[in-house]
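Much of what follows relies on a compact textual record of a protein's fold. A record is reproduced here so that you can trace the correspondence yourselves:
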Amino acid sequence: MRADGVGLGRVQVRLKWDPSAYGEPARHLDIVAATYAVGDPYGRPEYVVHTESRSPDGTITMIRHSETGLGLGVVEVMELEFERLSSAYGRVVVGVAIHQTGGPRTFGDLSHSGVLVVEGYRRLLADDFAGVADATAATIAEFTRDATGAWRLRELIRGFDSNPTGFMAEMGSVRG
């Protein structure tokens, strides 16, 4: 909750991973966010945001993207502006998917990978994917709107054995 007691405002999901070893196919991960209607929080997502898209109203956007992991520290960033998100939405699930080009890869195959969720300078969640080492995709966080309309975060580290497209379809269906 923000200092003003209103709930979450502008949140960033930051992803890092080391690049592939010389001669190996590039490691490519994506942050994915699925938005669900107030009346159907575990049904089909109203929309999904990833590298090739953004939310229709611009409240969820990718502000940094990498297809190789090259960079210093954080290599991919998604921003979620909950204070502007329509009241029609009551749940947002955020996850990470590994592209499977060059053969199957899991989080355990990556080095120095991790995700950090922040609001301003405040760290809300951090994870190194060790708990989902055998997975090819994982949910990270669930954001829900409470009865007052304020957005709250719940850690939701769950592994999936899916390609990115399959993961986007199933990531929010799990009740936790």
Notes: Helices lie at 164-170. The mean pLDDT is 88. DSSP finds one helix and ten strands in the chain. The beta strands are 10-16, 29-37, 47-49, 60-64, 76-81, 89-98, 114-119, 122-127, 137-145, 151-160.
